[in-house]
Amino acid sequence: MDVNLLSYYYGLIAQKEEEVRRLQDARTKLLGYKDELAGYRNLFFQPELSSNTWSGELAEGFESVRSTLQSAYDELKESQFLHVFLAIAAKISELQSQIQYYNSCIDSIRSDLALER
């Protein structure tokens, strides 16, 4: 019975460690995407509008839309990425706590098995 329980806990640990690894990989990829996204910020100001290129109501409307998009972009780049990174960190911490708990259960079972022998 205890040997089966050991196998069960080892399986849970392997599963949780895999989840941690996948979350760490996702975090790394997201950091890359965030850096890539930061490089595109200057594109909001292209083409530059002047009285020689484009002016009037349509140009003002375009500037307004561009300003709105830039605000949404800044929100995504800063706040939303931060929330995702915090959620990933919290989940990794939760999984690591579970792994520690399962390891303590394994230690306890091993102690019981040693006493039985």
Automatic annotation (TrEMBL):
A Pfam entry, by short name: YwqH-like
Protein name: DUF5082 domain-containing protein
Listed InterPro entries: YwqH-like (IPR031681)
